[in-house]
Amino acid sequence: SQQGEEDPQALSIQEGENATMNCSYKTSINNLQWYRQNSGRGLVHLILIRSNEREKHSGRLRVTLDTSKKSSSLLITASRAADTASYFCATDPGNYKLTFGKGTLLTVNP
Amino acid sequence: EAGVTQSPTHLIKTRGQQATLRCSPISGHTSVYWYQQALGLGLQFLLWYDEGEERNRGNFPPRFSGRQFPNYSSELNVNALELEDSALYLCASIPTGGLTEAFFGQGTRLTVV
Q1: Which domain holds residue A52?
Q2: Is the pLDDT of residue B21 over 60?
Q3: What's the CATH code of the domain at B87?
Q4: Which of A40, A48, A102 lies nearest to residue B100, judging by beta carbons?
Q5: A100 vs B4: CB contact, 8 Å cut-off?
Q6: CB distance from A103 to chain B under 8 Å?
Q7: Is residue B3's pLDDT more than 60?
Q8: Is the CB of residue B46 less than 8 Å from the CB of residue B60?
């Protein structure tokens, strides 16, 4: 079963706009990670946020974590066409079983 | 530094046959994870190997099996292939000592006809 669920399933925006994706999970976690997948190939790690952190930044990415609501959000600012990809959240509930959601397909139109 | 490598890139098999997929982790990484990604779906956790031992497995039938070799490379075997086994199989390696960033290979696209 999926531990994390991303929302929305698909998102289409114009270049330069911001994109926000959400992730909800079910059990307590040690950390939450976000990954990007281009065209059905390998995943690339974007950012990791630990359970005792509330917000983290990396370049144009901002991740928030609300452990009381068991949810996280990924914000991509000033999006580019190259950001078009599927984005997945992954959680580690503490048993080293890194579990992924179904992903959000982001399309950035030039 | 070489990344995670998977072979073959594509594999076409007939229903009922066996498939063997291979993964070489990043040098120094002892943990290898296997995932199945069927078309349009998320990643389903298959197997986790660490230090040569199977540490955890997902909700897959026993015909999905694997092993990890002394050099930490890993092999995934799928016996008695079924049409619904058609998917992208992804391998990831993680450094020793904790679950942090996972490094993924480019995957093996398995097609069962």
Answers
A1: 4-109
A2: yes
A3: 2.60.40.10
A4: A48
A5: no
A6: yes
A7: yes
A8: yes
